[in-house]
């Protein structure tokens, strides 16, 4: 058993822990069930890079690949049906939490093809298709926060489809995504839909922000810039959380809330620490706040269970976060412009590369004789 009882985090501090991983191995040997039972996991996220790691070279998928290749001509269709079983099993394992929490938690995220990240119409069509294919009420469709993705997100909420908006790296994206959510909810209400049945989260990435910004601060090489290293991501999170409270605890959301609409929770993503000189739970214990989600790699989850602090909150750091934000601007770090755009493009490229590599590996996998 872990040193910390992580199941108390949601009950006492209002934050949910989701696992940032999915594989057939995780499902087949009871690991996911154990993490749900003993480590406080209340949801799950996946992405093309995660599925590439899970599938390529794994014996758990070989026979199914061969069978599916005899059924479907398109390799992307083979991939979708290959991971469909994993998605459905994860949804079923988390369904009791979804039921008990009345849809606050118990969700599983399935990311669309990165090939359509800049095509709003295709994004909407793919979301509808994947939702129907999975046939699980606790499925979140992951849509990237490109301009076209945000447009598609608004349309999907208007159609009552629950969404995880991913690859967010800037306060500008947070503001635009929240605004799109409100517009989508209003459209859903006007069409006669039930606003209380749709769920959305906003995935704001952490360690990738510090990796890039720290590099820029090191290149500036002043005492002031060097002192800011390791602070950008947490400042971004603090500012984003403040905006969350302004939007969803304010007048703009009050009428929708009375109709049963849920706030769009911030989901802290990329919370595995990349810089070995930083704490391995830097983006966990410093991001505990009510009505937020942290999606963790298994190693980070277990590190937090063993030696993390379950008391830190975002709210007391608000003045500090604003000061760091201002100092970054003074140093010439364009957080909402150059930094956010570069990280979004790099994230899209990373997922596209992983997706293409995965499809190529599936295509190269030999058939099993009938």
UniProtKB/TrEMBL annotation:
Subcellular location: Cytoplasm
Organism: Halothiobacillus diazotrophicus
EC number(s) recorded for this UniProt protein: 2.2.1.2
Pathway: Carbohydrate degradation; pentose phosphate pathway; D-glyceraldehyde 3-phosphate and beta-D-fructose 6-phosphate from D-ribose 5-phosphate and D-xylulose 5-phosphate (non-oxidative stage): step 2/3
GO molecular function terms noted in the UniProt entry: transaldolase activity
Name the record gives this protein: Transaldolase
Reactions performed catalytically: D-sedoheptulose 7-phosphate + D-glyceraldehyde 3-phosphate = D-erythrose 4-phosphate + beta-D-fructose 6-phosphate
InterPro entries hit by this protein: Aldolase_TIM, TAL/FSA, Transaldolase_2, Transaldolase_AS
GO cellular component: cytoplasm
Superkingdom of source: Bacteria
Gene3D superfamilies: Aldolase class I
Primary role: Transaldolase is important for the balance of metabolites in the pentose-phosphate pathway.
Family according to the record: Belongs to the transaldolase family. Type 2 subfamily.
Active site: 142 (schiff-base intermediate with substrate)
Keyword annotations of the record: Cytoplasm, Pentose shunt, Schiff base, Transferase
GO terms classed as biological process: carbohydrate metabolic process; pentose-phosphate shunt
């Amino acid at each position: 058993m872990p040193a910390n009882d992580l199941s108390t985090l949601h009950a006492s501090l209002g934050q949910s822990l989701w696992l940032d991983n999915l594989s057939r191995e995780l499902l087949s040997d009871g690991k996911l069930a154990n993490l749900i039972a003993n480590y406080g996991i209340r949801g799950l996220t996946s992405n093309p890079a995660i599925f590439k790691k899970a599938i390529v070279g794994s014996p758990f998928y070989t026979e199914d690949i061969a069978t599916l290749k005899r059924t479907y001509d398109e390799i992307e269709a083979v991939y979708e049906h290959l991971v469909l079983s994993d998605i459905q099993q994860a949804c079923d394992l988390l369904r009791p939490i979804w039921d008990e929490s009345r849809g606050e938690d118990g969700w599983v995220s399935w990311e669309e093809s990165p090939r359509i990240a800049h095509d709003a119409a295709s994004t909407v069509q793919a979301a509808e298709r994947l939702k129907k294919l999975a046939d699980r009420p606790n499925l979140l469709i992951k849509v990237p926060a490109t301009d076209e993705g945000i447009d598609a997100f608004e349309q999907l909420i208007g159609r009552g489809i629950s969404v995880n908006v991913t690859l967010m790296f800037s306060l500008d994206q947070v503001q635009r995504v929240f605004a799109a959510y409100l517009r989508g909810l209003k459209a859903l209400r006007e069409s006669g839909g039930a606003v209380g049945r749709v769920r959305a989260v906003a995935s704001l990435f952490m360690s990738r922000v510090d990796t890039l910004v720290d590099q820029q601060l090191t290149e500036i090489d002043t005492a002031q810039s060097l002192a800011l290293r390791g602070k950008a991501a947490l400042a971004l999170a603090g500012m984003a959380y403040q905006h969350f409270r302004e939007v969803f605890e304010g007048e703009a959301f009050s009428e929708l809330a009375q109709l049963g609409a849920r706030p769009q929770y911030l989901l802290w993503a990329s919370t595995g620490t990349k810089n070995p000189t930083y704490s391995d739970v830097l983006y966990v214990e410093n991001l505990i706040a009510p009505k937020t989600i942290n999606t963790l790699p298994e190693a980070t989850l277990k590190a937090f269970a063993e030696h993390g602090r379950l008391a830190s909150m975002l709210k007391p750091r608000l003045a500090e976060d604003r000061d760091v934000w201002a100092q970054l601007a003074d140093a010439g770090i364009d957080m909402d412009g150059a930094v956010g755009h570069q990280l979004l493009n790099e994230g899209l490229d990373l997922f596209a590369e992983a997706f293409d590599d995965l499809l190529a590996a599936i295509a190269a996998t030999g058939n099993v004789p009938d």
